Amino acid sequence: MTSRLNPYISFDGQARQALEFYQGVFGGDLRLHTFGEYGAPESVDPNKIMHGQLEADNGFTLMGADTPPGTEHEPGNNISISLSGDDADLLRGYWAKLSGGGTVTVPLEKQMWGDEFGMCMDRFGIAWMVNIGQPPA
Length: 137
Description:
Layout: E1 4-11, H1 15-26, E2 29-34, E3 49-55, E4 61-66, E5 79-85, H2 88-99, E6 103-110, E7 116-121, E8 127-132
Parallel strand pairs: 1-4, 5-8
Antiparallel strand pairs: 1-5, 2-3, 3-4, 6-7, 7-8
InterPro entries: Glyas_Bleomycin-R_OHBP_Dase, PhnB-like
Pfam families: 3-dmu-9_3-mt
Protein name: VOC family protein
């Protein structure tokens, strides 16, 4: 898998409906994963979307999720830029540069779904997410 850069939108409980709407607009394959699939704590609605990804036939990729409880959701500030792929060295290098001088909100480390993941705000106030997947077998 090559590395990709795409928008990641946070929703206030309507991620499923929004991503299904965008699938109707752009077509393509929509994959939705709920918090319940990954053993979320009781404070999180297990049916809410932890991660959704739409891959349209024209190459567009759009990701999104419901904002978990305790995380501020503010329309207008609910979009991050996502970097993902399986080239761990390349993505860790991007992470180091993006988070340097910024604020790390989620350290880049192994997560419950098996990938390395981190979130940061760069020194210009732009939110970034980095996900390092496992290389294909």
